[in-house]
Automatic annotation (TrEMBL):
Its EC number is 2.3.1.160. Belongs to the plant acyltransferase family. Keywords: Acyltransferase, Transferase. GO terms for molecular function: vinorine synthase activity. It comes from Handroanthus impetiginosus. It is an enzyme of class 2 (transferase). InterPro entries: CAT-like_dom_sf. This is Vinorine synthase. It comes from the Eukaryota.
Length: 348
């Protein structure tokens, strides 16, 4: 499939960010996060009933994105150093392209590298020298469908923040304001930045380096249907002590067990540790689902030989529960910085 660039520009907020909001401080949790990008791709089939032209959709996406950036103003700024975003309204990179294929060709392909063509930045640990927190690429397919590829900086936001932004942008694009909300910017108040050199990310120790040195690396894309996940949840419920296993728990445990299976085949050491991010928004009263930032801690799970994925679900649940209200209270306390530092150092 050939993809051709139609235009490349920067979309700025539709109104200027007030002077008092120009310097956005990152939290001491944000400070530890590598500045690579989280990619996400949204797919939209052509709706024959509405019969809206791609050109009209494209125009509406740009206008609504500009409006959404007024509320999510740090995304239109530039990351400066370790602890600050300069909210200067320079805007986000917006690339519009056209493809000579069908949306179904992409969705049906299991080759993960194909997806790199659908996002503005490659998924190889790319770091923008311009400090752009956000970038968007749209692709107009011959079938009438559209894909929206989004890259957001790890350093400034997590998946929950990205989800909130997309929800807000969608509301602006469809003019549906029934569930209108405003993002909450209080993470740096709860977790004041330290700008501490020894708390910076140790890129050399990360499992996926910012500049990967491994050439013979193979990636694969795995698709789990909703019905398959429901079956897994039911199996875990019927064969474990957990009454309500989540999608995250069953899929994480299943993939972990698959990794352990390769160790059995290779007859290598069976001991393993899994680390999983745990969202802090549900554990701290001052936060809500629209709190902006990278608000998580890592839960570590040790395993010495267990390969049954259902037993691994139980291990994951036990680890997740350790990041509880008591842990959150300590994180908000005087020694919260040291606690967060210890949490991250365990995986670096």
């Amino acid at each position: 499939m050939r993809i051709q660039i139609l235009s490349s520009e920067h979309i700025r907020p539709s109104s200027s960010t007030p002077t008092q909001l120009r310097n956005f401080k990152l939290s001491f949790i944000d400070e530890r996060i590598p500045p690579s990008y989280i990619p996400l791709i949204l797919y939209y089939h052509f709706n024959e009933h509405k019969n809206i032209k791609q050109s009209e959709i494209s125009h509406r996406l740009k206008i609504s994105l500009s409006d959404a950036l007024v509320q999510f103003y740090p995304l239109a700024g530039r990351i400066k150093g370790q602890s600050l975003v300069e909210c200067n309204d320079e805007g986000i990179l917006y690339v519009e392209t056209i493809a000579n294929g069908s949306l179904s060709d992409i969705i049906g392909s299991l080759e993960s590298l194909v997806l790199d063509n659908l996002v503005p930045f490659k998924s190889n640990g790319y770091v923008s020298s311009d400090g752009e927190p956000l970038a968007v690429q749209t692709i107009l397919f011959q079938c009438g469908g559209i894909s929206i590829g989004i890259c957001i900086s790890h350093q400034i936001a997590d998946d929950c923040t990205l989800s909130s932004f997309i929800k807000y942008w969608s509301g602006m694009a469809t003019r549906d304001h029934r569930d209108a909300f405003s993002p909450v910017f209080n993470s740096s108040t709860l977790f004041p930045p330290r700008n501490n050199p020894d708390f910076r990310p140790n890129f050399q120790s990360l499992s996926v380096s910012v500049q990967p040195g491994v050439k013979n690396l193979v990636t694969r894309r795995f698709v789990f249907t909703s019905s398959a996940i429901d079956v897994m949840k039911l199996k875990a419920k019927e064969n474990s002590s957990i009454a309500n296993p989540t999608r995250v728990e069953v899929l994480s445990a299943f993939l972990w067990s698959c990794c352990l299976a390769t160790k059995v085949i290779e007859k290598s050491e069976q001991y393993s540790i899994a680390y999983h991010p745990v969202n802090l928004r549900e554990r701290i009263p001052q936060l809500n689902e629209h709190s902006f930032g990278y608000l998580f801690q890592m839960a570590g799970v040790e395993n010495d030989g267990e390969t049954n994925w259902i037993r691994l679900v139980e291990k994951l649940r036990a680890a997740f529960r350790k990041i509880d209200g008591e842990y959150a209270t300590k994180l908000l306390g005087e020694k919260g910085f040291e606690l967060a530092k210890k949490n991250f150092m365990e995986i670096s």
